[in-house]
Write a structure and sequence with these properties.
This protein is an alpha/beta fold. It has 16 helices and 9 strands. The strands form 2 sheets. Strands 1-2-3-5-7-9 form a 6-stranded mixed sheet, with helices on both faces. A 3-stranded parallel sheet has the order 4-6-8. InterPro entries: ClpP/crotonase-like_dom_sf (IPR029045), ECH_dom (IPR045004), HIBYL-CoA-H (IPR032259).
Length: 371
């Protein structure tokens, strides 16, 4: 299928081209750090399905556009301003956004051709969702990776339960609860990236077809891997024993108490960061990560689809913890969210468990067809 003839919706926010037998996708919304809108999600899905079924395409390369004066980003996540507006106005496209985004995440994980993600700059939230399923995840010296959702009263979605829970030790709990930003070395050490390249080497990878047409999918990956460089050392490796000890505690309250009793600078900084997060959503997140550890990807995404709907509808409108978190961070920008409950001590097990009750029977679940 000729991808140039496809009907796309994002008004140029997703660019595409084919060079030789490699399809190249560029997220082209740099003024918003390439944050994903619903039309962008639909365009990505359309392109990937077309190229999946096109025998002339042997691989897909995905990158983010840059803009002078803006931070470098692969993708900073979903369009949280849209979430806020849609939740307050009752826009049904809020439901469509998450259903279609999670289906796209699953498509990428199951993609039958090499999907290569150039994870340069900011890679957060939804940006992790469209890169963690890649056959080759390339980070650079500019990579700033995180799942910071608890900072906006959400949880690490887009398959975050699945890929964070598979990090070594209790790293998944640590990254999920704190939203800690990590660089290339830690991403590689913790299984969230596959290789390192200098940011100025983009052309080396993007112009791969100049070497000629590839004889197979595997040859594309060999070409790319041969151009990877030695990765920088991880910065948080020394903290791994402490991460494993503190974040193995049974509850968020006990994790925070354990950190508070540790006088090391890392523990005190981590405790202070967690005091700013949504207490309720940290508790939901801890349950999510630990449940996901024994789940397959499809079941994890279905669980996350239940969770995200409940985030907006258990307490609808301004009462939603997520709506309040986005208000404080991105709308009013006062950085003073009014979390409810205000402390982890006042979060009850019932408050947490209600998020895990699916509003749909299995056969009617929006993601029932994922396998």
């Amino acid at each position: 299928m000729n991808s140039r003839a496809l009907s796309l919706q994002s008004n140029g926010h997703v660019l595409h081209d084919t060079f030789g037998d490699v399809g190249i996708i560029t997220l082209n919304r740099p003024q918003a750090l390439n944050a994903l809108s619903l039309p962008m999600i639909r365009d990505l899905t359309t392109l990937l399905l077309a190229w999946r079924d096109d025998p002339a395409i042997k691989a897909v390369f995905v990158r983010g556009a840059t803009q002078e004066g803006k931070a470098v980003a692969f993708c900073a996540g979903g369009d949280i301003r849209f979430f806020h507006q849609a939740a307050l106005s009752g826009n049904p496209q809020l439901e469509d956004f998450f259903t279609e985004e999670y289906a796209l995440n699953h498509l990428i994980h199951a993609y039958p051709k090499p999907y290569i993600a150039w994870m340069d700059g900011v890679v957060m939230g939804g940006g992790m969702g469209i890169s963690q399923g890649a056959a080759l995840r390339i980070v650079t010296e500019r990579t700033k990776m995180a799942m910071p959702e608890t900072n906006i009263g959400l949880f690490p979605d887009v398959g975050g339960g699945w890929f964070l829970s598979r990090c070594p030790g209790q790293v998944g709990e640590y990254l999920a609860l704190t939203g800690q930003v990590i660089g290339a070395g830690d991403a590689l050490a913790w299984g969230l990236a596959d290789g390192f390249a200098a940011s100025d080497a983009l052309d080396t990878f993007e112009d791969a077809p100049n070497a000629g047409f590839f004889s197979s999918d595997a040859e594309v990956l060999r070409y790319a891997r041969a151009r990877l460089k030695q990765a920088p050392a991880p910065l948080l490796a020394a903290e791994q024993p402490a991460i494993d000890y503190h974040f193995a505690q049974p509850t968020v309250r006990e994790i925070m108490a354990s950190l508070q009793q540790d006088s090391s600078p890392w523990a005190q900084e981590t405790w202070a960061a967690m005091r700013k997060r949504s207490p309720l959503m940290m508790c939901v997140t801890l349950e999510q990560i630990r449940r996901a550890r024994s789940m397959g990807l499809a079941d994890d995404l279905r669980m996350e689809r239940d969770l995200v709907r409940n985030c907006f509808f258990i307490r609808p409108g301004e009462a939603s913890e997520t709506v309040e978190g986005i208000r404080a961070l991105a709308v009013d920008k006062d950085h003073s969210p009014r979390w409810s409950p205000p402390t982890v001590e006042t979060v009850t097990p019932e408050m947490v468990q209600q998020f895990f009750r699916s509003p749909w029977p299995r056969h009617a679940h929006p993601l029932h067809s994922l396998d």
